[in-house]
Design goal:
It is built from 11 helices and 7 strands. The protein is of the alpha/beta class and 291 residues long.
Length: 291
């Protein structure tokens, strides 16, 4: 009796195993098919959005801020290309007078003088004149992720530049600083400080560059539909235009290590910028969240 039951049990286990494997393979096949269909559909949506909104719209109406004199505030040389390239490129194309305030010379590895020259070369490629570039060399604003930049010092520098250049639009980092770099975030808090202290001129409109999650950050062109849906102020570059931003980034030769090339290939910030207009109420809300 025991002898006859054992093969029966083995057959049962074997058949159960075969059924389980077969069902699992069917599930995996269906899952792959579903993902493939979804990806193909999403790619088609990306192509449609690109052709309709990023390629066919006239340059002067594509994401226009209506700005005449714009100040871009960055923390380090290469920020203007790595993060703000599409905005700077498009504003220059639209005829705005673009100024750049860079708050440090990028001397983290002792290459401050070299990076200063690289900044000027990159801006020339982007279309920003030499006379519109202001690079700060202040011992209180060292290029260092561990350094705590003094917010009032930054605010005073920005305030001076806004007044001196008669700026009507200011663009800088948001609280996340795109890469969570403390120096980037410090620039945002300086702008917030200006709002709270009522030192921001009323005629000056302020926009911050949206920080996105790491998945969207490295979707590149594929982030286009999400950017269109989630932001009303956006700058997209065509492939031919994005090459110019890439060329500008490559002027920062001292920074072109292997992972920078990967960044250029995959980062949405090389082809897409989404901006958010902020005011005192927005600032107070964000500061409450911090508290």
């Amino acid at each position: 009796m025991l002898f006859t039951e054992t093969p029966y049990k083995l057959d049962y286990v074997y058949n159960f195993y075969l059924k389980f494997v077969a069902e699992t393979l069917i599930y995996i096949r269906n899952f792959i098919l579903y993902i493939s269909v979804w990806l193909v559909g999403y790619l088609l949506v990306c192509c449609v959005v690109y052709r309709r909104y990023a390629r066919k719209l006239p340059t002067r109406t594509r994401g226009s801020l209506g700005a005449k004199r714009v100040l871009i505030v960055t923390a380090h040389p290469d920020d203007e290309c790595m993060f703000f390239g599409p905005t700077i490129f498009r504003l220059c194309e639209q005829g705005a007078e673009v100024y750049l305030l860079c708050l440090s010379n990028g001397n983290y590895e002792g290459k401050g003088n070299e990076r200063k020259k690289e900044l000027w070369d990159a801006c020339l490629v982007l279309g920003v004149p030499d006379s519109n570039i202001c690079l700060i060399s202040d011992t209180r604003l060292q290029d260092n992720p561990k350094a705590q930049w003094a917010v009032p010092v930054i605010a005073k520098l920005i305030q001076h530049q806004v007044a001196a250049m008669d700026i009507d639009t200011l663009v800088t980092f948001d609280r996340g600083g795109v890469s969570s770099h403390p120096n980037h975030s410090a620039v945002f808090y300086a702008v917030a400080y200006m709002f709270v202290e009522k030192n921001m001129p009323q005629k000056c409109t302020v926009y911050t560059l949206d920080s996105v999650n790491i998945l969207r950050k490295y979707l590149g062109f594929l982030d286009l539909p999400l950017s269109f849906l989630l932001s009303s102020k956006r700058y997209f570059l065509r492939w031919t235009e994005s090459r110019r931003v890439t060329r500008a980034m490559k002027q920062h030769k001292s920074q072109m290590v292997w992972f920078r090339y990967l960044y250029i290939m995959f980062s949405r910030y090389m082809v897409i910028n989404t901006l958010r207009k902020i005011n005192l109420a927005d600032i107070e809300l964000e500061l409450e969240v911090d508290d």
